[in-house]
């Protein structure tokens, strides 16, 4: 587990989730980038589906526990922390964290590399982020459809671009393990999987309306818009049942 001692965490089934809110999280990540050390850090935006995947897959659990910072993205993780008696300050959604980092990046003229999604989506995302945050340099981008044989070329392109932040949007079972596998080679100070964020930024899809966000039901909006997610969403009720059933063991080491 790589999280430094100054990060207050709550263990959810052995996964150390940060208790910080957005402000402290952004301040911490800003410090990592501005330190000039360029030591690689993997940030994971943890949600119940990822937790359940980790409980079923030891390799994925190792990726989760090996991250440098896990923020409470999913509302179910926030709820579980409450049940554990060690509440987090607030939900830190990956989509919002991306934008908060871009805002700060304008002041410091950070360089950002975008990796993932389709060619059309990644190009539109790069263009829109450049317009919205002109002080940030989009130092490179490419789609997420590449094979393991192409990994070396992708890594070389990222290293050449020397970004301060790498945002990766690939399949949930691919993006975190890929970053974990290559983070030392990539050498980017902050690397974070952002799931479907590029789809929203590019305009391909819409984020849940404010009401769904306030009700902590963005998952329901996504399910209504994309019924094909139903099978994956089955992990949510399973997570709730497991938290309630194993409440006494929720925060115990595993």
Automatic annotation (TrEMBL):
The keyword Glycosyltransferase applies. Pathway: Cell wall biogenesis; teichoic acid biosynthesis. It holds the Pfam family Glyco_tran_WecG. Keywords: Cell wall biogenesis/degradation, Glycosyltransferase, Teichoic acid biosynthesis, Transferase. It comes from the Bacteria. Its EC number is 2.4.1.187. HAMAP family: TagA_TarA. Catalyzes the conversion of GlcNAc-PP-undecaprenol into ManNAc-GlcNAc-PP-undecaprenol, the first committed lipid intermediate in the de novo synthesis of teichoic acid. This is N-acetylglucosaminyldiphosphoundecaprenol N-acetyl-beta-D-mannosaminyltransferase. The lineage of its organism: Bacteria, Bacillati, Bacillota, Bacilli, Bacillales.
